[in-house]
């Protein structure tokens, strides 16, 4: 176990004007944070390590990379995560994220994923309390998320989807995403078709969480229906080509892809969350009408026939029971955000 003086020396070396000393020190810190025992050893002095580690995010690439890895490791401990936010981690990360030539974007996004797992820290990212800046951080993250679209070999921003899941556990986050004037909800929906399962899971989870606001925000949800129904129904549609009788009752954004055999959604988590989102929308009479209007029940029927995963089948069945019973069904057993 490192002594108190050893830890103090490490902190001082992290601040050294010598790049060689900074590199050696951050290498040791990164190694220590790679295990629970190492994190435990650092914990008593963690608040001393946070400022220099955050500062090193702006150092040369090899040093910044090690500092970012150490911070991600430390943020896996929720108590340390709170200390990181208090040390200004969110502001530091958002200051570096997306800078031209910056090489640690993926790690910084993962740091924000860890930080926003706590409600109070998610509120910090949402910038609650100041109407002038509320949502600016999230808007930037969504912009990075949709512009990159996983087109590069290294998908630096795929884990932004997990951040969106975390913040939409809060009512403020859901309402921010559904704010029509910002257009964030509509922007993320096409990512449900990404090659990245991480992106698809993130979007499906965030959309599902947003649907908990269906009672008061149904118009905002349906305003994006051209993108919303494909995002929710196509993962549940199976792989079979639908006949003309079925597709003639669908809008083009559903009829066109469903006219042909296609690759099905292989991830059961995405399918469950899509079904749960539809269930939450269908709890509202206007939501059920909108679902029938796009021939959604037929899509669910066909998809259910091919489904083999028990949890996904259960999610289909809950929607089916709701559609059969109509407004007489109570929202018992509803999922939680």
Automatic annotation (TrEMBL):
Transmembrane segments: none annotated. Residues 277-326 form the Protein HGH1 C-terminal domain. It comes from the Eukaryota. Residues 102-271 form the Protein HGH1 N-terminal domain. Pfam families: DUF383, DUF384. Belongs to the HGH1 family. This is Protein HGH1 homolog. It comes from Sphagnum troendelagicum. The lineage of its organism: Eukaryota, Viridiplantae, Streptophyta, Embryophyta, Bryophyta.
